[in-house]
């Protein structure tokens, strides 16, 4: 019996429990960490279809977020949902804030596309914004950053930070 | 209860001082390893958000968990404890995890007649299993009900069952249901206990079940009526029914029984005992499971052990196989001593098996293989 208890302890602790003590081992937290690091309370984050990511943002970031699938669900037509998201982005930029778009907003998963056909309508919007955003690649996520237009401001470019997250 | 029965029960109940040993050991171990990874359980992050925002308390499928957790956090904060509310709620689960082990210890000690240290050792099995261990250290709804259900099992496995036993079991079972609706599966155990008692002449089946229902019904109906009366969106019988059967309306929560159901039940059972996340550190196994369980989202489980070496994972697989073999052999040898067991011990084993089977059936039709910690 003692051997059995010892084996149970070693297997569950070494193989599972010890990893649950570190937040960096949380898949969803690792996804939002790059967004959190580069946003302030006044900024806006655009997410694709993950309600879970939105819940994580609410918990750890206190940042406002837009969930594309949710907008898509509550709009009458594809053009309407694109317009609503565009307005939210433009309002944010006009107010001097930054908009951060998560990779799952640009490249929704197959399951998200299957359940929310309307999400592919946003492609036209992203094509337009891709001319002016800064792309920051992290190990676990890619963030597309839109900032207010300023004279001498940053020009569109790509930055890669592959080793900073999830270690 | 007759006098000689009371004397038997009292002499069999462990003292508080005796129970303090498993309670304290488990509380300390669990507190030192509270989870910081909410993604391992399906809804942990949503529970944390709703407790923190003090809104959407009443969820139809775990009605009282939100209010209880919120009250616990409020009490802790009023006492000047200023730490994250998710850690506070996890600690509440840790306390009930430790209490669950005390109930389990009492079952081993009183119903199986083990000595004190053997009982402590046997209690180590659920204590260090992944299911109880993890769910006692995170924000999830299942551990407080588990305590109620283990107390019910303790009552239902007594030498003699009478009306009071079924009344208490009804009350405890429905408190558990109000905290996590899945606990309704324990009704199968109560039915079996009533039938078994009837066979042994402990009381009529209908009488036992009537007493059970008359205690259970108000216990669960009152909180639900309270919730329904305070929800703005519930305006008619139809909307009330729609709210009460919420999960039933989403196909993503259910999958039809198929060949993979057995496999999913196996994954759930494996996770309940050993966690088994380490197997995802073996690339071949990972790709095989991903094909086998297409509709089950395992990315968070895989991510959890991404830094675990394949050699360590192989070693843990070997230990798990050894563990399974020990369980199978000792179980096999125990069958030979089955006729020598007292009817009370046999009944406890039957009741436990019925419980495991009832809960084990659950992950076979839910898409996500939630470990059945019962």
β-strand amount of chain B: under 5%
**Total number of beta strands of chain A:** 6
Morphology of chain A: elongated
Number of domains of chain A: 1
Strand order of the largest sheet of chain A: 2-1-3-5-4-6
Distance between the termini of chain B: 29 Å
The helix content of chain A is 40-55%
User: What letter string, H or E per element, gives the SSE order of chain A?
Assistant: HHEHEHHEHHHEEE
Oligomer: heterodimer
Low-confidence stretches of chain A: 163-167
CATH class of chain A: Alpha Beta
Radius of gyration of chain A: 19 Å
Helix/strand structural class of chain A:
alpha/beta
Q: Main beta sheet of chain A, described?
A: 6 strands, mixed
How would you describe the overall organization of this protein?
The complex is a heterodimer of chains A (167) and B (374). With 167 residues, chain A is of the alpha/beta class. Chain A has one domain (26-161): Rossmann fold (3-Layer(aba) Sandwich). Chain A has helices at residues 2-15, 27-37, 51-60, 68-73, 78-94, 103-106, 110-115, 123-129; strands spanning 44-47, 64-67, 99-102, 134-138, 142-146, 158-161. In chain A, α3 (51-60) links the parallel β1 and β2. In chain A, α2 crosses α3. The radius of gyration of chain A is 19 Å and the shape is elongated. The two termini of chain A are 38 Å apart. In chain A, 37% of the residues are buried. Chain B is mostly helical and 374 residues long. Chain B has 3 domains: 13-141, no CATH class; 144-249, no CATH class; 255-364, no CATH class. The radius of gyration of chain B is 21 Å and the shape is globular. The model of chain B is unreliable at 1-11 and 367-374 (pLDDT under 50). The interface between A and B is large, with 34 and 49 residues.
């Amino acid at each position: 019996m003692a051997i059995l208890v010892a084996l149970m302890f070693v297997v569950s602790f070494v193989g599972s429990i010890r990893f649950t003590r570190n937040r960096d081992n949380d898949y969803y937290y690792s996804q939002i960490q790059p967004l959190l690091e580069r946003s302030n309370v006044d900024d806006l984050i655009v997410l694709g279809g993950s309600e879970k990511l939105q819940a994580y943002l609410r918990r750890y970031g206190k940042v406002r977020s837009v969930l594309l699938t949710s907008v898509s669900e509550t709009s009458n037509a594809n053009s309407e949902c694109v317009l609503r998201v565009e307005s939210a982005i433009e309002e944010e930029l006009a107010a001097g804030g930054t908009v951060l778009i998560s990779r799952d907003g640009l490249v929704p998963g197959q399951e998200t596309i299957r359940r929310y056909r309307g999400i592919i309508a946003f492609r036209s919007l992203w094509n337009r914004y891709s001319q002016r955003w800064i792309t920051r690649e992290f190990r676990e996520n890619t963030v597309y950053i839109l900032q207010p237009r300023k004279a001498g401001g940053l020009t569109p470019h790509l930055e890669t930070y592959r080793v900073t997250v999830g270690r | 209860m007759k006098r000689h029965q009371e004397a038997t029960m009292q002499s069999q109940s462990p003292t508080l001082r005796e129970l303090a040993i498993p309670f304290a050991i488990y509380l300390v171990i669990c507190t030192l390893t509270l989870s910081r990874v909410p993604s391992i359980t399906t809804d942990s992050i949503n529970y944390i958000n709703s407790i923190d925002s003090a809104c959407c308390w009443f969820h139809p499928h775990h009605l009282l968990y939100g209010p209880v957790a919120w009250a616990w956090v409020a009490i802790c904060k009023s006492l000047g404890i200023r730490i994250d509310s998710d850690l506070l709620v996890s600690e509440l689960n840790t306390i009930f995890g430790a209490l669950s082990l005390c109930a389990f210890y009492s079952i081993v000690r009183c119903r199986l007649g083990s000595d004190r240290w053997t009982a402590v050792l046997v209690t180590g099995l659920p204590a260090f299993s992944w299911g109880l261990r993890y769910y006692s250290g995170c924000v999830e709804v299942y551990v407080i009900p588990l305590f109620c259900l283990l107390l019910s099992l303790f009552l239902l496995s007594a030498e003699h069952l009478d009306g009071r036993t079924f009344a208490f079991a009804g009350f405890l079972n429905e408190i558990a249901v109000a905290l996590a609706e899945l606990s309704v599966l324990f009704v199968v155990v109560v039915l079996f206990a009533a039938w078994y008692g009837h066979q042994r002449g402990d009381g009529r089946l209908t009488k036992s079940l009537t007493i059970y229902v008359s205690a259970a019904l108000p216990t669960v109906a009152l909180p639900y009526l309270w919730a329904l009366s305070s929800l703005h969106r519930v305006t008619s019988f139809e909307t009330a029914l729609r709210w009460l059967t919420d999960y039933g309306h989403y196909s993503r929560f259910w999958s039809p029984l198929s060949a993979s159901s057995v496999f999913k039940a196996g994954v759930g059972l494996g996770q309940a005992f050993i966690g088994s996340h380490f197997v995802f550190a073996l690339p071949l196994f990972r790709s095989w499971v991903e094909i086998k369980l297409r509709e089950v989202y395992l990315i968070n489980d895989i991510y959890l052990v991404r830094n675990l070496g394949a050699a360590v994972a192989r070693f843990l697989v070997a230990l798990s196989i050894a563990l399974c073999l020990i369980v199978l052999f000792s179980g096999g040898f125990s069958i030979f001593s089955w006729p020598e067991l007292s009817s009370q011990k046999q009944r406890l084993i039957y009741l436990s098996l019925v419980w495991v089977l009832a809960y084990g059936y659950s992950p076979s039709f839910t898409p996500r293989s939630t470990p059945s910690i019962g």
